[in-house]
Each structure stands twice: as C-alpha cells, then as structure tokens.
Amino acid sequence: MDKDGNFKAYTYECREIKAAEGHMLTLKPYEFQFQYENERTDTVTEEYNPSNDSNRVKTDKQLGDTGAWLEGVTLRIERKTEGDKWETVDEWVTGRQTHCTKDLKAGEYRLREIKAPEGFKALAEPMGFTITDGMTEIPQLTMKNYASIVEIQKTKGSGNFLAGARLQLLHKETGAVIGEWTSEEGAGRKFYGLEAGVYLIRELEAPVGYKKGEDREITVTEDDSRVQVFKYENKTKGGGGGGDKPKPRLSTSRLRKRTGQERPFPAQSLHSTTSWAM
Q1: pLDDT digits (tens, 9 = 90+) for 48-83
Q2: Structure confidence at residue 12 (pLDDT)
Q3: Count of C-beta atoms within a 10 Å radius of residue 152
Q4: Measuring CA to CA, how many Å separate 148 from each of 66, 82, 151, 224?
Q5: Count of alpha carbons within 13 Å of 213, Cβ hemisphere only?
Q6: Same fold: 57-145 with 149-233
Q7: Low pLDDT (below 70) residues in the chain
Q8: What is d(CA 113, CA 271) in angstroms, rounded to the nearest whole number?
C-alpha cells in the first residue's frame, strides 16, 4: 500500500541464505508479485513451495586416461563415524554412466574400490572427500584404473573387420590360453592387464571363403597410456589379397596343332580360350 492506502504491485524476491540440515544451497531466487483482487481483500497471499536437493556426490569410473567408462567395478562410499569407524552408505557396480549418491549427511567420506574387473588390480588407496550442508555445487569424483590394454583385430586384406573367425590368445612361454573368442564385424577383442611378454594369436577356425591363418607372434609392453592394437589378416581361399570379395583369376589355354612332322602351324592359325575362376 502507498501512503494513501492504495495497493501498488511490487516485485519481490525470495532467496535462500542457509540450507536445511542435509541439503544443498541450490535454490534459485524466486520472484513474485502479490495479486490484489479488490478493496474487500483483507490479506494478500503468495504460495511458494520450494524443494531443496539433498546432499549428494557424483562418481565416474574410468579406464586410465582414455576417458572410457570402466564397467564391472564394485565401489563403496563410506562415512566416518565416532571412534574412527566407517559405515557403508552406498555400494554399486559401475556401468556406462555417472553414479549419483544422494541423502548424505555432513561429514567425512571415502570412496573405496571393493572389487576390480578381470585384468585389473583393486586400488589400495581410497579417495577421501567432505560433505557440508549448504554446498552450491555437487562434488564430482573420478576414479581411474590403469592397466595395459591390448586389442586384437581380425581383418580382411582391405583392412576392414572380418567376422566369424574362431581365435585364441596364448602365452608363448607357458602355452596358457588367455582367451578364446569369435571375431565380430566392426569390433576387435580387448584384453586388460596383460603382463608384458610374448603372446601368440592362433586361428582355430577361419570364416567361410578364407584360408586358416598361421600363428602370429605379438609382443605386449607395460605401456598403459594407449591401446596396443594388433591386426591379424586373413586371405581368401582364391589366393587373392584377402579383400572383401575373392578376386577373379585369369586362366588362358593355348591350342597348338602339330603336323605329322611335329611342327606347329603358323601363329595366325592358333586360337586361345579364356575362362574366369573365382
């Protein structure tokens, strides 16, 4: 109201200056005006029902510095309690997305790796972090596992992937079979955490129309900064370059007719036939 008792519409702003216990300070300012109906209105009200985000943290599990998701890892978030004990507040198996843990009380926490996927060692050192009431940003945790990454690609002579080959990877010195698989179109087979050394790629069965390849020797290093890629090419049974389709082979037969004196006729009287074999 102005000094004369007349209603004037003002714009108001409601701000949150302190979050409730267990919640973040993430509410945006709320602007509003009181809606005046007429002079008989005793009270003008505005209804506002804000909802705060609970304290939370986001966690990513990645494969070294590649930026790729590392699946199949069991992770646990624990909160420190009295007597320096730790209680579990969340546990999950990683997939191909960020994991969000909600409803956290203020306090000290740690992120632990409980079980690593095949080829990796579980990280011994946990990752500590602190949750406080009234946070304006959601903490982001990124835990990385490092290990050698080897990719074996089954290819045609054209360089494209070749599906349908049955393959094995063996340790050359011990003869131990590391893995057995069937090659797929558009993707190689990856192995994680292989020890440095010499290995053999062995073809057990070739795809239809292709020759079975010989053992190929590869050397794996301890380098975990990149994917170590090894290509194993198949050639077609027709003897071509192993491309997408067998290449035709030109076959020429020359006819020679002899006289009774075993002398050939002149060249202009000779004929040839040509056939194409796939």
Answers
A1: 888 888 999 999 999 888 888 999 999 999 999 988
A2: 84
A3: 22
A4: 12, 41, 10, 4
A5: 24
A6: yes
A7: 1-3, 5-8, 39, 41, 239-278
A8: 79
**pLDDT value at residue 2:** 64
pLDDT of residue 16: 86
Residue 236 to residues 66, 123, 188, 216, 247, Cα–Cα distance (Å): 35, 46, 20, 17, 9
Q: Which residues contact 277 (CB under 8 A, 6 or more apart)?
A: 238, 248, 249, 251
Residue boundaries of the structural domains of the chain: 57-145, 149-233
Q: Token digits for 60?
A: 């990513």
pTM over 0.85: no
CATH class of 149-233: mainly beta
Residue count (the chain): 278
- For residue 41, what pLDDT is reported? 67
All residues at 6 or more sequence positions from 96 whose CB lies less than 8 Å from its CB, including other chains:
69, 71
Class of domain 57-145: mainly beta
